[in-house]
Structure formats: C-alpha cells, structure tokens
Amino acid sequence: VFYNKEAGTEKITTETGAGQWGSALAWSGQQFDMPVEVYQVKVSYEQKPYRKAYIEACGAKIFPSPSTQTQYGSSVLKEDPDCPGSLGIAISEAIEACVASGGTAKYSLGSVLSHVLMHQTVIGLEA
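and the corresponding structure tokens:
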C-alpha cells in the first residue's frame, strides 16, 4: 500500500478467502490513507462476521463474493443465486473493479502468493 500511495494510486482492490489478507490490506490502507475494496469468498464472509467488522473498522469496503458490485459477480449470481463463492470468483471481481476504475485503482493479489502464506504463518504463530 505504501508504494502505491507514493505512486499516486487512489484505491486498492483485492480478494480474500478467510479474511487474513483482506484484513492486512485494510489495516495498511488505514495507515496510509488509501481506500481499499475487499471481495471475500461469500461462504467465509458469512461464517466470519468478525473479519467483516475488522475490515470495515479499518475503513475499507468489503463485499461477499460473488456480489452485485461487478458484472462478473452479477452473472454468477444470476446463474446460481446460492453460489457460496470461490477464491477464483473473488479474484475476478477484484480485478474487474480495478479495471473499471479507469486507471485510478490498482489490484493487489495476495491470497495465493508465497509472501502472504509467510505473513499468515507469522500471524498464526503470534495468536
């Protein structure tokens, strides 16, 4: 988030599965006064209301994915209104939101990358 702020980015979009990555980006966004939008896998969003509360407390927006915020999410819901979501759907929605911003937002992939796995391991050990 810091480097995006320095580069003039106006907003970050991202996905999250269980919510650790989304929580980390929401906190970072708060620290650097950067708006963050998080698309969380719907089943996890519903099972972990404390993640939603934390992300919102940090000032970020969070949406259960699939959502009606994007064309792709809307198409998934049209086909299956009870879709529990997946990380792939959440990634697709976050990318679409970024592209739709007209260049003012950047997408931050996190949930499936090695540095995030390390970050989540450290958080798990601290807990």
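(Above: one complete record from the training split.) The CA atoms of residues 67 and 77 lie 7 Å apart.
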